[in-house]
Structures are given as structure tokens and as C-alpha cells.
Amino acid sequence: MESTRAKIINLLSSNQDSYISGQEISNQLQISRSAIWKHIKELEKDGYVIEGIRNRGYRILQSPNKVSENTVQWGLNTNWLGKSIIHKESTTSTQHIAHDLATNHADHGTVVIADEQTAGKGRLSRAWYSSKNKGIWMSIILRPSIPPYLAPQLTLLTATVLADVLKKELKLNPKIKWPNDILLQDKKTSGILTEMQAEQDRIQYVVIGIGINVNHEPDDLAEDIQSKATSLKIETGKSWNMTELIQQILLYFEKTYEDFLDKGFSVIKEKWESYGYRIGEVTSIKTFHDVQRAVLTGIAEDGALLAKYEDGTIKKVYSGEIDW
Ligand code: BT5
What is the pTM of this model? Predict the structure, then answer.
């Protein structure tokens, strides 16, 4: 449920350069002018700078430099993604909250964000370090009308979205390591965890978890990952505004997702392969059964990794690690 404050922010944000009168806000939200005034004062306490001019109305001049439902909403140019945002200062895992919301009928496009996760999850019950205010820890709820076996495509789609944002907006040179790692200078800066609730032939919902190390200094990274992980700050030497980054990710995500529904997976596949780490090279692939050398030739329509083994056979790898 969108809060009244979020609705006010939404209204003011949809019209950033002009004023919205108290009367109009009152009509649209069905609340009194004095209630609006109280909400505006609360927003100012949060760090918003709001100009109110008699006979003209209100307009937002500046939003605070901290992630919250309101700050992400302000200036978010999506049509459906992130229209409902749940922000927590601390939680076990945004995946847990997203699953709870999704089973309670949360809308397609609902986004859960946390400043800190105390039990962040990776794949296969691995842990994901999510230190306070250092990175983006968020989950997106989707209700896609694709068959369950194609859900892995959404992980690959998400990876291309993150790579695109890092490349186009931050001018970095990201690589995607199959299936879900975003690397900068061969070190992991981001991971994706896709979880799904489905019946045999129908997806009820998918939760896509995105973790990005943003403003970590080297010492902020847990000791056991220091040699193989990095952050945007470590790579660029500067801090990044996480609210803006989240907005960019959501905007690119919405566009890419719509393209995917329109045109199918081929566009994603091509882009993924252009970012693919060690594509065309010989590497080691570790599966549940064994470790083998193979050339990575690309990805298949169902999201599997295509590997050409030394005996010349090309096989699909659904679960495993490359060059770990
Ligand atoms: C992933 O798993 O890479 C998926 C990570 C997804 C995290 C997001 S954050 C929002 C949402 N809520 C959650 O609880 N999870 C999602 P996997 O491929 O299994 O990689 C896990 C491995 O990456 C760990 O075993 C560590 O070696 C390493 N690792 C853990 N934390 C890291 C970090 N912050 N940065 C880089 N590497 C990390």
C-alpha cells in the first residue's frame, strides 16, 4: 500500500518544474489541506527541501541524499517498476520481505530496498555480505507470463541491465560471469539471485535480488572476499549516489524487460554475450559431478551456458561455476 507521503512525493515528482496547488493535492488524495501541510513538514524533516508559495502551491527543490521510499520515487522515470517501494534500514534479507509481499498479492514491479541485510543470501545457501549504507541491496517482484523453465532468462536479463548501467552511466567496463556475477577488473562487484514460486506451467511470481557493492573502501569488504570482490568506489575512486543508481537500474530494467517481452530473448542473449566473461576462451567448469576444461561458446535460449568440451561435444551447463 502506497503511503500518503509517497503519494505526495509522487505527485510533486511528476511535475518537477511547476507547482502543484494544495487544493489539487487535496482533491487527488482526498485529504485536508492541513493534513498535507503536516506531511510536507515531515518530508522536510527527512531532508527534502520543499518550496511552498501562497496561491501557487508546492514544489520539491531538493531530495535528501539517503535512500528511502520517497527519495527513490522522486525523479524515478519508470511507468510501472518501483511504483511501490518498500525501504528498510535493516532487515535479514530483502528476498524474505519480497517473498512475503508477493504471497500477499504485491503488485508486479514492487521493489524492496534495504540499507543493510543481516542475513543476505547468495545462491545455494551461500551468504551475501551487505554492510550498512555501503551498497544496493534490493529485490524486485515480477509476475511474468513466461513458462517457469525460462525463468533463468531473467537472471541473464538482469545481468545485462546492471552491465549496461555500469557501462553507459558510469563509463566502466563490466563483464558478466555466467550466470550471475558482474565483474570489474575480474573482481565481483555485483551478484543476482533469482527465486521463483511456480506451478508446473505457470509462474506465480519471481523475486530478483540484486546486490551491488557501491561505496565500500577495501577494508569494508569482508576478509574472505577481499581478494575476489570490489566496489564501484574502489574501481573509480569516488563515492556514488545510491538513490540515483537505483533509479537508473530501475529505468534500464523496465525498458529491457519490455524489450524482452516484445522481441524475445535473442536481444538479451546477444547483449549478454557481448559482456560475457571469458566467452570464446578455454576455462574450467565445475559442476556437481566434476571439473572439466571447455571453451565457453555462449548462452542458450533457456539461460544455460554453452560449453565445448575437449572431445568436441557442445553441452549445456545449467548449474555450476566457471573459473571460480
Ligand atoms: C550471488 O550469489 O552472487 C547472489 C547475490 C544476491 C544478493 C542480493 S542483495 C539483495 C537480495 N537479498 C538477498 O538476500 N540476496 C539478494 P552467489 O553467486 O552464490 O555468490 C555468493 C558468493 O559471493 C559468496 O559465497 C562469497 O564468496 C561472495 N560474496 C558474498 N558477499 C559478497 C559481496 N558483497 N561482494 C562480492 N562477493 C560477495
Answer: 0.87
